[in-house]
Design brief:
Largest sheet: 9 strands, mixed
Distance between the termini: 24 Å
Oligomer: single chain
Strand content: 25-35%
CATH architecture: 3-Layer(aba) Sandwich
Strand order of the largest sheet: 2-1-3-4-13-12-11-8-9
Structural class: alpha/beta
Number of helices: 5
Shape: globular
């Protein structure tokens, strides 16, 4: 069989070889199995964005599930140019993160995310997430990636607080309602202002689509998974476990039909360009 399309999958943590609090092997396998089902599609893989400029030429579809790695310098420039020329990028979960620094707030040590050039390319910037919890997700936009999804569904996941970088050019696909970040003191990442909160004072964007030139990005913040070996969190919301105990193994939305359909839709969208 002749292959005539190529997808590039980036799945990994930072430092190189680290799981960075996630079950990277599970997420990688889940995505590879779904890509394998597509005829005439070749797949290349990487653990981070190093030398991504070498892999983008000839690539039709990029999928990323990372915790720490991000494109910088020539890599980010190559990614921007690839999108302008018609590439499609399905970015999941921690792709909206990147570098964190240690600093202080009111005399106590905190970690804070650093906004960088790749956030402008992607279209959003991760602020924080509360402890793992269950929350209601609403489908807010009609797009090939949201096709046939239920209008509302429950997710057991990390509820990402993301700041849109180009809201007027972003088509909102998934939302939830959360008036205030319920994170306990010292949990997660510090931020100066809650720029994730939308104008109505309750809506949070969980996924969006954004066109860049002839290309397009779909970012979906859902998808946390971990094992006891890779987990880095100690508490969860009672909606996950009544006594707040973190499950030793957690695959959340990955084990739901709704998320499986969303990922399948995204792959079909990525390899079937207009």
């Amino acid at each position: 069989m002749t292959t005539n399309q190529r997808a590039h999958l980036i799945t990994g943590g930072f430092p190189p070889g680290s799981a960075a609090g996630h079950d990277m092997d599970y997420a990688r396998l889940q995505l590879l199995q779904r890509l394998q089902d597509k005829d005439q599609l070749a797949v290349t893989v990487a653990n981070d964005f190093q030398d991504v400029e070498r892999w983008l030429p000839g690539t039709d579809f990029l999928i990323t599930y990372v915790a720490g790695p991000y494109p910088a310098g020539t890599g980010n420039a190559a990614l921007s140019g690839w999108l302008e020329n018609g590439g499609r990028w399905f970015a999941l979960h921690g792709t909206s993160g990147g570098k964190a620094v240690k600093t202080e707030s009111k005399g106590r040590p905190v970690k804070k995310m650093v906004k960088a050039e790749h956030h402008q390319t992607l279209g959003c910037f991760f602020l924080n997430h509360p402890p793992l919890c269950a929350f209601e997700v609403s489908v807010a936009g009609d797009h090939p990636v949201t096709r046939n999804l239920p209008k509302r569904f429950t997710a057991r996941d990390e509820l990402y607080l993301i700041e849109l970088q180009d809201p007027h050019a972003s088509q909102i696909l998934l939302t939830t309602e959360l008036a205030e970040d319920p994170s306990p003191s010292g949990f997660g990442f510090f931020y100066d202002e809650d720029t994730s909160l939308q104008a109505d004072g309750k809506t949070r964007v969980l996924a969006y689509a954004r066109e860049i030139g002839r290309g397009e990005i779909v970012y979906v913040s859902l998808g946390h998974c971990h094992t006891g070996r890779t987990n880095s969190q100690s508490i969860v919301d009672p909606s996950i476990h009544s006594d707040g105990t973190m499950p030793a193994e957690f695959h959340g939305v990955w084990e739901t039909e709704t998320f499986a359909l969303l990922v399948e839709n995204a792959i079909v969208w990525g390899i079937n360009k207009r």
